[in-house]
């Protein structure tokens, strides 16, 4: 906090000094101009005389008042309350240099303060938190969109349901062109285009000042290394990596003339995604087609000549001034939640440019880009989700010791591999895989929940009893097979006594395994788990336990009353339960701890309402690429584990995270 104040005062002092310089130069310019126009302006003249100075009256008035103040203070200059000697007159180059310093410090200060609480974190952590913020807004807006579509579907079916038979009878005769046109207009709401929640997120984050790097930057961006993957164009905008969700070329214009001593505009980033038919991508050497003139909504072919303006002019200026450009490659991917993935491949320099007739016969601008030397190895192949390393079948798995540890209990098999031990050892001997929780005979099960009376799928959160328990809203959105909108104290799902079926969105955690997982052996951490598929993030606000979850204003009082009920009970008299996965359990038994995890724990109730026997479900805290180890925070407090003699037990942590505590407990 103190460093920020010192930085702020330093910036303010320099800004004040620069303002005085600008006013002095403005005054000199105005005086010279007025003199040439034979209009006399003097600081000792009356205000009436100044007001008669034509259209420049407001500017001249400010200059006159500033000169009067300066005359009184010209013998001494006060800095931080202490008188000093009169400063020497600075040259124009010094004034320009100081102006640049003030501007740059201002931009750095804005960047450091971007995202509020993120200012004290590392660049990598800032990027991660910004993407989490994006996902939080995104899932909430997806929920709004799904509710809108559901409402329109209900209204559509209510309005048109009784007219279907009549319409069929009338259509037996000759078809009317007008009726056909009308029929085309009346599309079912489920087939209408969405309202693009990702674009609404960008607007919301801009309004909330949550864009990580709002000012455009030339070169690398802190916290984003070569190989970093984005799963939508909107994510790049949220971070400030590429500031437009549609255009391929991101550039800075004349408004940055004070910050950069360059001939503007210049490009800062480009996206190569196959939008233009004339692109030629050879990884290290790229021939990039300029922007403009192609059919955006049709076949993407060129339909008119391109012009040397905007992004094209910016790339030309990069070539002339040797300004590097960030290159992002986008590829189609069925495993990404947007069906696209974008990988940062490093900095490139524009080697040359030219105009030529394209494949469609129109003039296009071409730019040859060459990758800057000394950067990490090109990671374009990672765009394909490392398909070269992800096995397509169990026969291709290296170090395979078990084809399926579940013995067919899950929707997809879970193989186990060991490339560490020689000879390779299998998972713990005697381990028995169980898909569901097995309750001991001594545990008395609570009374079953009554459930909701919905039919088929739960749609209206205002009438569904289970949704009411969640604050009159559903905790999930149906996108990507079901995603948790935000972490809650407890999630109430539909259960066996509900009228809805298995396709209900409020049964998301009951659908079983959705991704291809692998149990593998590590050198220091024993067994671990990773996914062969991309896993889209749910929304994580906090994972500090049940009492630490952030409550929303709409959150249900029922869940809060449950928490208070069990928190108020005497810990000595209240029975305690634990899940013992030593010899039996499911795949989560092999998931390791990490101080910076990519999963978080959520308690879920469905068959009953006893919080002490809630199901423990793991959700994705971040977008998890294939082959990244799955981890969650075990939640041990340091020095909290004691041995039989009451002495503190310690265990080292080998998670390898940047913020690792070095101890598990």
From TrEMBL:
InterPro entries attached to this UniProt entry: H3-K9-MeTrfase_plant, H3K9_HMTase_SUVAR3-9, Post-SET_dom, Pre-SET_dom, PUA-like_sf, SET_dom, SET_dom_sf, SRA-YDG_sf
Pfam short name (any one): SET
UniProt domain SET: residue ranges: 515-635
Annotated stretches, region: Disordered: 1-98, 157-199
GO cellular component terms listed in the entry, alphabetical order: chromosome, centromeric region; nucleus
Principal subcellular localization: nucleus
Name of the protein described by the UniProt record: Histone-lysine N-methyltransferase, suvh protein
Species: Medicago truncatula (Barrel medic)
Lineage per the UniProt record: Eukaryota, Viridiplantae, Streptophyta, Embryophyta, Tracheophyta
